[in-house]
Structures are given as structure tokens and as C-alpha cells.
Amino acid sequence: MSSFTAIVRRDLRLAFRQGGDGAMAVMFFVLAALLFPFGIGPEPELLARVAAGVIWVTALLAALLALDRMFMTDWDDGTLELIRLSPLPLELAVLAKCLSHWLVTGLPVLAATPLVALMLRLDPSSLPMLMAGLAIGTPVLSLFGSAGAALTLGARRGGVLVSLLVLPLEIPVLIFGVGAADAALSAGAGAAQLAILGALFAFALPLCPLAAAAALRQALE
Amino acid sequence: MTEFFAMGGYAAYVWPAYALAVFILGGFAINAVTRYRAAARELDLLQARRPGASR
Amino acid sequence: MHRFANPARFMRVSGVVLPWLAGATIVLLAIGLFLGFRAPADYQQGETVKIMFIHVPSAMMAMFGYSSLALASAMALIWRHPLAEIAAQQTAPLGAGFTAICLVTGSLWGEPMWGTWWVWDARLTSVLVLFFLYLGYIALVHAFDDPTRGSRASSVLALVGAVNVPIIHWSVVWWNSLHQGSSVLSMDGLKMGWSIRIPVLVMALAFTLLFTLLLVIRMRAALLERKIRALRVLEAEAVPSDYSFAAPEASA
């Protein structure tokens, strides 16, 4: 277990030491979301209608930004080889990587959401559901992202390729995340969508580390 | 006959659909056969250069 | 299963089967098209129903293609079946092609029916996502300098995608039911009489045979290409017999 936390702590330290990585994803999230009023006009009703969707899509894209570095730097300097040789199962190491990715991208995005929601005129009654959905959904983004990052390790144009591979898989998360927020507006429900998001999380939690570990083993051969 | 080609006024939609299918599927067919023939020819050439090699 | 693992045996068997497969494909395509064009115009859709004879079978082939891709990838990963990787890689472009046909014919059907070139109905949207899954797979195969890495990684991707396809489809269906305006928009809501259903089924069978035929020819070509590469490598490694490896004498 200590290897698990060691990986997480190391990644966090690296992310905040380099400064850029830690803040970049959340800054992209805020900036990209705030582009929309410039694009579609500042009219409150229109913005409120699209706010949940815009927040979710930009959160997704922000999570994608940090993905190709998830394993790349460790692969380049040999740390990945050491991780593979350590007693910690590779699947758990991948989970540790997912956790640190989420702590550096998903969690700050979650923290910035109320501010962005305010500026996009999101109806306040749907904010709790939106945040709950993001809280469950952003780890799923990190999980699918880890599989994509592992598969494209060492590929040409890996950064763009990861997006192409991961985005279709994350469509269900997007659908139900926005669905939860929108449902909160009308019926006051949204719990069903959250439950489905939870199911997606439970599904991704074992599957993605398995796939990612298999891909990492191939990359390290 | 002209009725057949007019397709009840929807000719502009029906015929391009079939044309696309023929184009793509026909393209795959031609490409597959051409690839195979070219590979077979090249393989014969290479094997002729190596006397005693088994097929 | 492993009796067919031998590439040479595959070449022999497929060589024998191929003419019959091609003949059956052509016959079924002819029957399907004949029945289709003889079918009367639909009272709802008019003659645009004729597009269904291409659209529905190609949708089925899009699914069939991805299932084959996933199955072949599983066999490549789990059993290291030597033909499986080749089968998977040759299937993907075919599946993508049928998917593209499905999408475009769907648009061509939608414009006269609903007055719009694209509609976010559940089936078309799922097929669109499937198209991107195919593209991702093909991109990953070719993204590495080392082709082995490309095959292995894309096999994993195919399996991850396959497991997700039902989830994606189900999510899209739910999403679509939420945002649906009128119920007429659903393609599945249209009633199809037997004069339509039979040609569709015949065309579906014909497309399946066509898919298999194209796949077999492509696999044969790929196997030959693999042999060519192996022979080329041998040629490059062979050193001419009069070449001396001795170090050049240092001049005094």
C-alpha cells in the first residue's frame, strides 16, 4: 500500500513543482468554458440552457490535456520500468496514476465549477447535481484516459491520438452527467442518472487498469 | 423505364445512395484483388531469386 | 481451432472456397437487388424506402464488423492465434467502410423524409460513434514504428471498445428518448411490410457474404505481403560471399 501512496505523492509533488501542469488543466477548463459566451452571445436564457453541457465538455477536454503525460515522463526516464518491477501489481500502480491525475485535473475542475457555473448563468438549483455528477464522472474520465494513455505510449502523435481513442468511450459519462444536471431543473430528480454514473465508475474501475496494465506491459517489452 | 429512374421524384436521393455503396464496396473489391495479385507477382519474383527456397 | 492456425493451410482452404463464396455473393446480391427494385413504393416513405435496402444491411455489417474485430482481437491477445491479428487488421477498414455507407445513406434517407440531412436518432448516433471507434483502431495500428506494438495495442483497444459499445448504445438511446420531439422521427417506428423486409434480409445476407469474401481476399493478400517482407529481410541480411570482413591493413 505504501508504494501506492508513494506513486501518488510523487506525481503530486512533480505536478506542483513544475507549476504548469497543476494549474494548466483547470485554467484551460475555465478559459474554454468562458469562450462560449463570446461565441454564442451573453443572453442569459441561452447560456443557462447550455451551461451544464459546456461545463461537462470542457471538463472532459481539460482532463484529456494532462493525459499523454500520465505515463510518458515516467517511461522516458525509466521510472515506469521500476514501477513494473516493483512488488506492487501494475494494475494498482495504474490506479495510483489515475488518482493523481484526478487530483491534479478533476478535483481542481470540480472546485472551479461553481465559479464557471455562475458566469455561464447556470440555474442554481441544478448546481448540486452537476457537481455530484462531476465528482463521480471525472474519476471515470481519468480511468478511461489512463487506458488511452497507456495504449498510445510511444506512438507518433500520441497526444492527439489519445483524444480520438478516449472521447467516444466517455460519451456515456457526458450523457448522464448532463442528464443529472438537467433533470434537477425539472423533476428535481437526477438521482437515477447519478446512480448510472456510479455504475459506469464501478465498471471502469476494474476494466481500465486491466487494459492499461496490459498495454503498459506491451510498451515495456 | 423513366419511371424507374425517376424513383417517384426521389431520384436525387436513391441513386446517389446506391452509387456510393457501389463505389465503396467496388473500391474495396478492386483494391483487395489488385493487392493480392501484386503480392503474388512479387512473391514469385522473390522466390525465383532464391533457388531451393520452399514455398 | 488450431488446425486453422497454419497460414499455409488457410491459403489452401481459402483458395478452394473463394470461387464459391464469390459466386454465392453475386447471386444473392442479384436476388436482393431484383426483389428490392420490384418492391412497391411505401405509402409513408415513397420510393426512398429503396435506400433501406442498402442502409439497414450496412448498419448490420457495421455491427458485425466490430464484433468480428473484437473476437479476432481477443483470439490474438489470449491465444496468440497467428491469423487472428491479420484478420483483425483487415476487418477494420471494411467495417469502417460499411459504417460510412450506413451514415451517408442514412442522411440521404433522412433529407426527403424529415427535411434534414442529419438527425440525432439513436441508431445513426450509435453508428457515428462506432465509426470513430473504427477510426481510432485503425489509427492506433499505424501509429507505431514497431508494427507488433501497433497490433497488440490495437487488440486491447478493440476489446475495450467492444465492451463499451453496448453501454454507449444504451446511453445514446436514453439520451435520444429524452430529447425527442415527435415520435415520428424514430427510424424504428416505421412499419415495414414483408415486401420490404424480405429484400432487406436478402441484402443483409448478401452483404455478410460480401464482407467475408472481401476479408478473405484481404487476408490472403496480407499473408503474402508478410511472406514478402520476411523474404526481403532474409535478402538484406544475406551477405555477398566475396565481401571481406577483415580489417583494412593499417598503412605503415
Fraction of residues in helix of chain A = over 70%
* Distance between the ends of chain A: 26 Å
Query: Quick check: average pLDDT of chain A?
Result: 90
Percentage of residues in DSSP E strands of chain B: under 5%
Question: What series of H and E elements makes up the topology of chain A?
Answer: HHHHHHHHHH
Shape field of chain B: rod-shaped
Radius of gyration of chain A: 18 Å
SSE string of chain B, helices as H and strands as E: HH
Average predicted confidence as pLDDT of chain B: 84
Distance between the termini of chain B: 55 Å
Helix content of chain B: over 70%
Furnish the topology, listing elements before pairings:
The complex is a heterotrimer of chains A (about 220), B (about 55) and C (about 250).
Chain A: H1 2-17, H2 20-40, H3 44-65, H4 69-77, H5 79-85, H6 90-119, H7 127-151, H8 158-169, H9 171-186, H10 191-220
Helix pairs in contact in A: 1-2, 1-6, 2-3, 2-6, 3-6, 3-7, 3-8, 3-9, 6-7, 6-10, 7-8, 7-9, 7-10, 9-10
Chain B: H1 2-6, H2 11-49
Chain C: H1 7-38, H2 49-78, H3 82-114, H4 122-141, H5 147-179, H6 194-237
Helix pairs in contact in C: 1-6, 2-3, 2-4, 2-5, 2-6, 3-4, 3-6, 4-5
